[in-house]
Amino acid sequence: MNPQLSIPIVAVVLDLILGDPRWLPHPVILIGRMIAFLEGLLRRLIASERLGGIVLLLLTVSLTYGIALAVVTVASAVHPSAGIAVSALMAWTALAARSLHRESGLVAAAVERGDLPEARRYLSYIVGRDTADLDEPEIWRATVETVAENSSDGVIAPLFFLLLGGPPLALAYKAINTLDSMVGYKNDRYLRFGWASARCDDLANYLPARLTGLLMVLVAPLCGYSSRNSWRIMARDGRNHASPNSGVPEAATAGALGVQLGGTNSYFGRPVVKPTIGDPVRPLDRVAWRGAVRLMYSAEGVLLAGWLAAITVWQYWR
């Protein structure tokens, strides 16, 4: 096997075993600091907020890609094995399956203990909605929704870009994702300044979100669920979301699990009514959460296996 082909495999295995160790400086933290610094600088230098936001997007993504590529190039020049090792470590930091499982698991464990205040606190770390007044069913709904949505943003999308263009492209995607989470808000401060970042995030996630939905449909039987219902709900309710992308994996997950997602959420004290996704055939509970996690891991495994199979066939026939 070409040593380069081992990079995604090693990255996925490291993520599954170790997740995001707190002792390891994470590139997303460094990207976030760069964004904060550039935002302050560009707001002072460029009068037009929309133009400043465009420059922020271009600088952040190009610097992230360029620095990652330079590090890999230098490491490879020292020794080919060093280049592979550095690339694998970079790729590992772009994936978040184990982290998503662990963080959502903290919520699940707190609910199981009957400690709803603790569950709400853990949940507030992984969702954007208000959590202070959520009851148990709403806590489970929010947990399943964030696992479903982040199965695309945190797992399939970075793996897709890793397979497409290596660690530099995967980290460039993470830069776009981080930009959206920091400046992609529709409020007075970021409506114009964050416009470019929000639109770029929508574009970057368009294919991965739909790939995630299709993978969920494909792996549903492996997890004991219905592919037919997953496809039916994805086709019917995939657009029932304010995001052009998030509704697709949420609908595929809801259909497979036989649960209903969506509905009313509260943001900064204001209720926001959203369309529902799926049918309430089964309750939202620990079983549904575990099912969403199984779908996430299975989709990741099938994507990696499919890529390896395609590469093997291509090398055999070329």
UniProtKB/TrEMBL annotation:
Listed GO biological process terms: cobalamin biosynthetic process
Keyword Membrane tagged: yes
TM helices/strands, residue ranges: 54-75, 155-176, 295-317
Domain of life: Bacteria
Keyword terms, alphabetized: Cell membrane, Cobalamin biosynthesis, Membrane, Transmembrane, Transmembrane helix
Pathway: Cofactor biosynthesis; adenosylcobalamin biosynthesis
One of the Pfam families matching this protein, by short name: CobD_Cbib
Molecular function via GO: ABC-type vitamin B12 transporter activity; threonine-phosphate decarboxylase activity
Membrane topology according to the record: Multi-pass membrane protein
Gene Ontology CC: one annotated term: plasma membrane
Subcellular location: Cell membrane
Matches recorded under HAMAP family: CobD_CbiB
Known role: Converts cobyric acid to cobinamide by the addition of aminopropanol on the F carboxylic group.
Family: Belongs to the CobD/CbiB family.
Record protein name field: Cobalamin biosynthesis protein CobD
Gene source species: Geobacter argillaceus
